[in-house]
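Quick start: read one record
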Amino acid sequence: MAEDHQAIDTMKKYRLRTAARTGNVTDLYNLIQRDGNVLRHFDEVEFVDTPLHIAAEEGCIRFAMEMMNLKPAFARKLNQQGLSPLHIAVKQGHKEMALRFLEMDNDLVRVKGKNENNRLDVLQVLIRTLWKTDYYREVVNQIDEDGNTALQLAAFHNQPESLNYY
């Protein structure tokens, strides 16, 4: 009996990951309708690829935005590689998705990954993308918990190429 339950859970996780990978919001809600706790497992595991991480990797913006509405905490969760969904979106070159994440929660830029350079990597990509937008000055001038701006971090980490975008 326990094996049957485990097989069902494995199938749900597979379907959920497939929905995230393909960006299928309808399948997401079908799974939620069948089991209202289908996303609970991800809350219980400290480091895990959530459906939001998977959608960020695949560039499925609509699915990712829906997931952020349902489970905003997933945006701050790190996977086994120490990456948040924002870090993954930036790493994969999904700039539009990264911007949408920040539209929903601009504090996501402060989520620390496996090393603090992840924050700087995110800021470098965003600065290149944002320099023509209203978000630019807001993001560049945000102060972290140590009182540093993105430009100060770039100088501190000896990455002068980041300063060229200011």
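Confidence is low (pLDDT under 50) at residues 1-5.
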